[in-house]
Amino acid sequence: MKGYVIRRLEYGDFDEIITILTDESESITFLSKGSRKPLSKNGRNLFVGNYCNFEVFLARSKGKISRLKKAISIEEIDWRMEWFTPFNLLNEFVSNYQSFNRNLINVYVNLRQLIIDCKYDELALILIVLEQIIVLNGISIEVNKCIECGNKKIRNLSLKKHGFVCFDHFDPNETEFTIDECKLIHHLFNHQYEEINKYHSLMKKMIYILAQYIKDNLGISFVSISQIKA
């Protein structure tokens, strides 16, 4: 089977528990014996993000774990990516994704490549990953007109209503966002990623807001977000 390494956990002295995302959007976890040994042939191919061909002895009963026979790299990435927050966030989300979604592999591959290309800075890439997580989970945020009436004269972003609101539907009891913060969200959810670089000073604040929005609406929280430098 072919797939991407999305999680790598130490197990015992020399073994690892590996989770991969296959080309069919399936998440499979297996034991990799001896892959932490310095001369392990499998170990050098199991960096998170690598695309490999895996030979696996699949477990035949519940309570048993599958075991890796061989991993052959098809496409390797720089091992230093494991310390890059957008990449960690992407793999953290995908490795913990509970439902089957055929679009998951496409989202992963596209975001992985976007992060590798590094056309945008770290904070912008984190925002892009968060936006894709929201969309993949079926939440639609209206960022082009008032979600209540369609008016294009926008007053605020309502996280409660999942979109922009006009002056008539503005709720003063909700968090009020600045014009630039609304513009950042508008560009982000319209995939105008070049434009969000203009609002770099606002990115960290909006990362925490979107992360909290995801936690409130999807029940998902991310350890990777804590890696962002203060």
UniProtKB/TrEMBL annotation:
<dbReference type="InterPro" id="IPR003717">
    <property type="entry name" value="RecO"/>
</dbReference>
<dbReference type="GO" id="GO:0043590">
    <property type="term" value="C:bacterial nucleoid"/>
</dbReference>
<dbReference type="InterPro" id="IPR037278">
    <property type="entry name" value="ARFGAP/RecO"/>
</dbReference>
<keyword id="KW-0234">DNA repair</keyword>
<keyword id="KW-0227">DNA damage</keyword>
<dbReference type="InterPro" id="IPR012340">
    <property type="entry name" value="NA-bd_OB-fold"/>
</dbReference>
<protein>
    <submittedName>
        <fullName>DNA repair protein RecO</fullName>
    </submittedName>
</protein>
<dbReference type="GO" id="GO:0006302">
    <property type="term" value="P:double-strand break repair"/>
</dbReference>
<dbReference type="GO" id="GO:0006310">
    <property type="term" value="P:DNA recombination"/>
</dbReference>
<dbReference type="InterPro" id="IPR022572">
    <property type="entry name" value="DNA_rep/recomb_RecO_N"/>
</dbReference>
<feature type="domain" description="DNA replication/recombination mediator RecO N-terminal">
    <location>
        <begin position="2"/>
        <end position="74"/>
    </location>
</feature>
<dbReference type="Pfam" id="PF11967">
    <property type="entry name" value="RecO_N"/>
</dbReference>
<keyword id="KW-0233">DNA recombination</keyword>
